[in-house]
Amino acid sequence: MSNRVVAGPVQALINEFAKLPTIGPKTAARLVFHLLNQPRSEAVALAEALVALKDRVRACSRCFTITEEDPCDICRDERRDPQTLCVVAEPKDTYALERTGVYRGRYHILGGLISPMDGIGPDQLRVRELIARVGQEAPGEVVIATNPNAEGEATALYLSRLLQPLGVTVSRLAYGLPMGGELDYADEVTLARAIEGRRVL
């Protein structure tokens, strides 16, 4: 879409939307023109939600998921099983696993996956914090729930080698999940079966 056809605030918002993952210029333009046809209150509500997201949401100091209160709801919930710690790459993975209603333990968010091609090694992730948590909380099992792709497998292998000498059982989700897939795209039934059928590494 040419800037000569659409200028000013319209083009500026199209440009901002197009920066988001999976949203190209055409989808961005559709979103902007949809917002133009909505009442002003809808645009204000969207703007306020975005500002609140940046102002009020932060990382939990214990598990590193996103939260408004520190520690997060899951870390504060005494009904959660302290003997099981599930390691995921990103907060969105926690959300995906919680949707299943099957997993009742606690989480640890790494903040990414080992990816030498992208210059991401263990030092860029929350691996030291994970080792410290396992030492302090002494869970009976650490479930590694990284994506079934090259980066996820490399991260799982690295973590299992670090964790096994600590005397903790290290398991991996069963796959039902397709190789190369991502947790947040999997349906609840597939994820639930992967949790229930996890295997010891």
What does the model show?
By secondary structure, the protein is of the alpha/beta class. The protein folds into two domains: 9-56, RecR Domain 1 (Helicase, Ruva Protein, domain 3, Orthogonal Bundle); 66-200, Dna Topoisomerase Vi A Subunit, Chain: A, domain 2 (3-Layer(aba) Sandwich), CATH 3.40.1360.10. Helix content is 43%, strand content 13%. The chain has helices at 9-17, 25-36, 40-56, 73-76, 91-100, 127-137, 150-163, 188-196, and strands spanning 58-59, 66-67, 81-88, 105-109, 141-144, 169-172, 199-200. The chain has a five-stranded mixed β-sheet. Strands 1-2 form a two-stranded antiparallel sheet. It is elongated, with a radius of gyration of 20 Å.
Low-confidence stretches: none
Radius of gyration: 20 Å
CATH level 1 name of the largest domain? Alpha Beta
CATH topology of the largest domain, which one?
Dna Topoisomerase Vi A Subunit, Chain: A, domain 2
Strand fraction:
5-15%
Which CATH architecture of the largest domain would you pick?
Answer: 3-Layer(aba) Sandwich
As laid out across the biggest beta sheet, the strand order is 4-3-5-6-7
Query: Overall 3D geometry?
Result: elongated
Number of individual domains: 2
Total E-strand runs = 7
Structural class: alpha/beta
The helix content is 40-55%
State the separation between the terminal residues, measured CA to CA.
52 Å
- Sketch the major β-sheet: 5 strands, mixed
The helix/strand series, from N terminus to C terminus, equals: HHHEEHEHEHEHEHE
Mean pLDDT: 89
Helical segment tally?
A: 8
